[in-house]
Amino acid sequence: MANAPTLQDLEDAVDELGEQAGYGKDTQVKFLMQMIQGGYHNLLDLNHNKHGAERDDATVMTERYVKKQQGTSMFDAKAPNQRKAISCTRTGIKLGSWPKGGNGEPIANVNKFISRWVKLRKTHGKLNDAANSLLAFARAQLKLDRLIDEADFDAFMFKPTVEDLTAEEIIENTVKKLDKLIDGSASHGTAQCNTAHIQQARHHMRQELADIAKAKSPAPGQPVKV
Predict the structure, then answer these.
(1) In terms of Cα–Cα distance, which of 38, 31, 58, 36 is closest to 47?
(2) pLDDT tens, 73-129?
(3) Could you give the C-alpha distances from 151 to 49, 129, 140, 144, 201, in angstroms and in order?
(4) Is the Cα torsion angle 152, 156, 162, 168 positive or negative in sign?
(5) What DSSP string runs through the chain?
(6) Does residue 220 have a pLDDT over 80?
(7) Per residue in 123-151, pLDDT tens?
(8) Which of 8, 41, 54, 187 fits as disulfide partner to 191, beta carbons 3.0 to 4.6 Å?
(9) Which residues contact 14 (CB under 8 A, 6 or more apart)?
(10) Contact 15, 64 (CB under 8 A)
(11) Cα–Cα distance for residue pair 144/75, rounded to 1 Å
(12) Contacts of 7 (CB under 8 A, 6+ apart)
């Protein structure tokens, strides 16, 4: 059995993946795999203030990766895009430390999942990218007391089929998304924008929905169509 990685091994791997990402390579899923490994081997955890106020391992590792990727010394952990990235990193760490799968798990099942994704990529063009597929799998796994069966892997990999929507349905869906953006619950609580422009956009869309509903209503004295 291979020796367990050290924290230094993990940091070196994150640095390398960040640098490769800076050259245009898609290394996000490999980074997530490192976070899962780190959680599994107890190198990383979810201690909220481990590295100072509101600086956990997920924040530190995301910062390390992004700085190497962008070749910069600047990192704003409270910026919406970085908050989302940190949340994804945290999901990887949490999955790695998931205790309910038995010896060698969930690492073995994660490896099977990625192998299945690689196999499907050769024959299917409508797959989600590997990182988003893995994140969907991870979030589902964390809600269960058992390992996700291999027969269910594909459900996390394919892009959902969206039926054609009416203009009214599109506007309704957009209003719901703006509601979440305004109250801060969008993107698992990682995205918020409550500016006057956003609120005005929501107001105008709600007005449009009211106008659509009014147009559907029969005029006074007119029979209702059935």
Answers:
(1) 58
(2) 899 999 999 999 999 999 999 999 999 999 999 999 999 999 999 999 988 878 999
(3) 39, 19, 14, 16, 43
(4) positive
(5) -PPPPPHHHHHHHHHHHHHHHHTT---HHHHHHHHHHHHHTTSS---TTTTSTT--HHHHHHHHHHHHHHT-S---TTSHHHHHHHHHHHHHHHHHT--SS-TTTTHHHHHHHHHHHHHHHTT-S-BPPHHHHHHHHHHHHHT-SSPPPGGGGGGGTBPPP-----HHHHHHHHHHHHHHHHHT-HHHHTB----HHHHHHHHHHHHHHHHHHHHHSPPTTPPPP-
(6) no
(7) 887 899 999 999 999 999 999 999 999 99
(8) 187
(9) 31, 34, 61, 64, 65, 68
(10) yes
(11) 34
(12) 38, 43
pLDDT reported for residue 225: 46
Residue 221 has pLDDT above 60, yes or no: no
Per the document, the length of the chain is: 226
Q: How confident is the model at residue 165 (pLDDT cuts 50, 70, 90)?
A: confident
Would you state the pLDDT for residue 96? 98
Rounded CA-CA distance 215/93 in Å is: 52
Determine the distance from the C-alpha atom of residue 158 to the mean position of all C-alpha atoms in its chain, rounded to a whole number.
Answer: 15
Among candidate residues 182, 201, 190, 132, the one with its CA nearest the CA of residue 160: 132
Query: How many CA atoms does the CB half-sphere of 63 hold within 13 Å?
Result: 14
